[in-house]
Amino acid sequence: INFETSISTNSGRKVPPLMFLPMVELAVEKGVMATETSEISVTIQIETSEKLTFNVNFRISGSQTTKDDIKNSLSNVIRRLDMELPNQYSLDINIINKTCSIDLILKNKIK
Q1: 3-state class of 49 per DSSP?
Q2: Which helix (H) or strand (E) holds 108?
Q3: Is the overall model pTM greater than 0.85, yes or no?
Q4: Angle between helix 75-84 and helix 21-31 axes, rounded to 10 deg
């Protein structure tokens, strides 16, 4: 797993506990291959005190996994975001050539 951070401001931002863990777990579950080298990339960027970006990229192993499958796997995260951060996030899931990208952007300052 490659992990990168880019923090350009001391925002003092707090994120609800374990918010990102299910996305990393999903990447390991869907992206680790027994016969090939697996690559999972996790990036956290804080550009301003009002914006935090979390990204997970991984190559899907094995069976056909769809965007709906990924979204269903993250249903608890989506429900939690809706409860704790209503209208303060965007979640994009893209699959291109068996490579999945999950982008979560948290907007506004979280206290």
Answers
A1: coil
A2: none
A3: yes
A4: 170
